[in-house]
Amino acid sequence: MITDEQLQVALRLQAASQSYVPIGHVLLAQKFISRKTLTMMLHRYQKRARLGEVLLKAGRITPAQLEEGLEYQRRTSVPIGQVFIHLGWLNEAAMRDALCTQLHVNFVDIDPIVIDRDLARLVSEAFARRHSLVPLLRVDDVVVIAMDDPSQADIIAGVESALGLQIEAVTTVTEKLEAAMHRLYASARSPEMRHISSDNIIIGPVRDHAVAELIRQEHLRAT
Length: 223
Fold this sequence. Notes:
This protein is mostly helical. It is about 55% helix and about 10% strand. It has 12 helices and 5 strands. Helix 10 (about 155-165) links the parallel strand 3 (about 140-145) and strand 4 (about 165-170). Helix 6 packs antiparallel against helix 7. The longest helix is centred in the N-terminal third of the chain and has 14 residues, at about 65-75.
């Protein structure tokens, strides 16, 4: 999948980083591999970092908090990210930033994005609300979808199969996801769509440069 030279470059960059960055993220950022290739390999060898481990290595939580959070999760079956928020150790933005590091997807402020109302024909409102997702933009045969849980590979694969299009996932905070959902599906029934101009769309580091560039170019075109 990669050359020895590419691996050595990635290891040097990882060692030089001031914060924890998974080696897969470095390889992806350097365009040595695609996100789908990385996801496939991590799934095949069961090597995806756990969210709690990502937060721990990033210094967001302590080992004691991780143990307490895992014990709480065992009792309640609540997703571990939501556990940390419930216990007051993280806010949602910090949790999603770690989730994006874990999954190698981008954390996006979707408020400024002008959503084409035709996207409501690709993904029904009922499906979008059931799975907490919203299509943001389409460029040729690629559709970028914001998801509450971008780890749901089966949902992504199902949408790809149904549409015959390539799906790229990003995530955002729950409030903005719900607002975008309302914006798209309510606007599809009304004459106008809300437009907010902003250049600050990607929050934090870019995890997937190809998808970030798609979003940036489409945003510039729409504005």
